[in-house]
């Protein structure tokens, strides 16, 4: 019976893309490497700024699609994806010392959207290089905070920041009320959890810290070529029948969307929130967040990706749940040493690459790398004061670019299905209305729920972490703008005004297309776990050294690290996490140790890679799946071991002893 059901489902998907399908690609560990490497923008050279890199081990300063196909391993969970995904690293600047500290990557997901279309969606050709976002932007986009992937409705705005908040409450707002982008970021008037530029509060949503959101265009022009990243891609257009089609001569490839979570709560007690200032800076020196961007180089086994495109609608259950994956899954960690040998983590005096600070502290658009920076303007600032830094050469780089700020406007339709608070109660299986239920322009769209049984997936259990997904809306407009994910117009041009682009500019080729607008909805945490910290009265089963869970004894609360002290299985997919189902999962996978963290994450391993035990009070977050129990804390792991606690301690002691002895001879 199963083969018949599967065949019927696959046939329905393969006949036509009448409805959008998607699958979320997850990664086996947090990053492949980190450093100043960018084979798309700076091939064969040291990159301008530090990137976090995910994907295949063939990555390097000069890597090509062929190199990626020859990767020995990949951080992508689906075997056959040796592509690379990279984005600027994030740093925290201590206002007291002026020093910089790297912010850990919490985790990242890559959404693969397969639009409803009259086109055939094809796998990425090997070596296709795509860049989304403007690395040089220091002003708000001309469209303000409005999400837009439709050039007929206004300027393309493909990158945003999302700031989930505890209990989905946005008072005070995450971005200063009334901000026009000249001295602070701009919050989305419809979806309160989104905006452009950095927010000025801690993003403390359930298992959801500050998140970078980057959409990539999905129409490839083979006449331009694989590597001409400034001109080879555009977004698809509305075909008039609710489907999204590419221009003639283009190849329709998957619509890639990256969501990148940063562990900003680790710094929440070190800066004053809600005052229009914020302490984070991108690795290129941008203190505004407007220059958020990401790069992608295709290294897929094209047969594997085409199989996913044609047969899978696994949604948030994950691409690894797609049926019949030809090559199976990657389970092991995959890392490579950075090609550029320099310190990029820990406490730094300056950003790697001599990238001077730029942004709100200097009037909104001025790039300052010298010592002649003017005093910070009154109003909002990034919290960097008027300090600046001289480059290693002693030269001052950058020029002043006066800006006439312009805030968000209703110059084009920004209607979306989000509620006024932007945080509706939603399940992980909520989708936008299909084309045949599209609302008229006179009323707002309504939501409907897609039954979980309609997902083509080996498993429909939800992810153990809160996952944001992206709801399209389509609203007609007669305006047409440059369809570019590169250097678009900034807030120095009033919204709706004519923008003159030199005809000789290769980076700005005007193409009239229409695509869809998106808004981001962040799922609510389960009612039993919407507060991250568990009040003492709510915990009835706080673990002790004498407690056991399904035969595993509680070993203690241990400090976790970016490389994970339990790394056999990272963030196991067990549904709503509890100590019991985490232990059961790890036992079934053959691991003697299980650990829970952040109230909603499960890890397995055979040994602890460090033995830094914390006070049990540091593990203080209620379990997502059992509010009466404790599942770790912030970078704190509640650990359970098979056998007795002494055995686990001996394993840790032996490992640490051997590690220390080896370090003496390096």
TrEMBL record:
Signal sequence coordinates: none
Region (Disordered) residue spans: 374-489, 524-547
Occurrences of domain WSC (ranges): 551-643
Residue stretches of biased makeup (Low complexity): 377-388, 414-430, 457-466
Bias (Polar residues): 475-487, 538-547
PROSITE patterns registered for this protein in UniProt: WSC (PS51212)
Highest rank taxon of the organism: Eukaryota
The protein's name in its UniProt record: WSC domain protein
Organism encoding this protein: Ophiocordyceps camponoti-floridani
